[in-house]
Write a structure and sequence with these properties.
alpha/beta; Glycerol-3-phosphate (1)-acyltransferase; seven-stranded mixed beta sheet; 9 strands; 37% helix; globular
């Protein structure tokens, strides 16, 4: 049986809000993010697609906009984001992707808007960074912020990315890396060598963030 789209959306949004209300979220290095925001810097949060679920609840005073697929699933995600005061522009790597990036770049330059990019989305390969975040940094002067999220208990959806949904009352640890943007404004259009160097850096930092111990829980 297929539920009406409006009912499906209502159920998903309220399921999401109910799960988030139970999570025990710990943010590591959040002070660096708030300090950069206070200085008026534009930030580009870069994370893996499978970890997106648990990042949305921590936007708080930040105005964050994400790129969302133009598919029906994207319709539902846009409503979930809106429930947590996160904006959306619609596009993917195959449909409207460049247009969505340009729209987000304009918003970042005209308002104090930060971007959220799932750097291996929307269809992989899993945990291999693409160029979207660097395009935004080049266009806006925004700074790259690697983000990793670990969940004590989660359900992994059988999709290409093994999307993680934390179980109710799970502990979630969000690790923010230090903002950076060196080398991303060298030329009006980023050279391949610059892209490759920064993709390697981002992937390395994302890997290292996941391996760092939680303060107070070191062996």
């Amino acid at each position: 049986m297929h539920l009406p789209p409006a009912l499906t959306s209502f159920l998903l949004v309220n399921f999401y809000k109910a799960v988030c209300a139970t999570l025990r979220i710990e943010e590591i290095n959040r002070n660096a993010i708030d300090a950069a925001h206070a200085r008026g810097e534009r930030l580009i949060f870069c994370l893996w697609h499978d970890e997106l679920f648990s990042l949305i609840p921590v936007a708080r005073q930040l105005k964050v906009v994400a790129i969302v697929s133009p598919s029906k699933d994207g319709d539902y995600l846009e409503r979930i984001l809106a429930a947590k005061n996160v904006g959306a522009v619609r596009g993917s790597s195959t449909r409207g992707g460049v247009r969505a990036l340009l729209s987000l770049a304009r918003m970042m330059k005209s308002e104090q808007v930060h971007a959220c990019i799932t750097v291996d989305g929307p269809a992989g390969p899993r945990h291999e960074a693409k160029e979207g975040g660097f395009f935004l940094a080049n266009r806006t002067g925004g700074r790259i912020v690697p983000v990793r999220i670990s969940m004590k208990n989660s359900f992994k959806v059988p999709t290409w990315d093994k999307f993680q949904i934390p179980l109710p009352f799970s502990k979630v640890v969000i690790r923010f890396g230090e903002p950076w943007g060196e080398g991303l404004l060298e030329v009006p259009n980023i050279e391949e060598e610059t892209l490759a160097r920064n993709k390697a850096r981002l992937e390395k930092e994302l890997h290292e963030l996941a391996s760092r111990p939680i303060p107070g829980e070191e062996a």
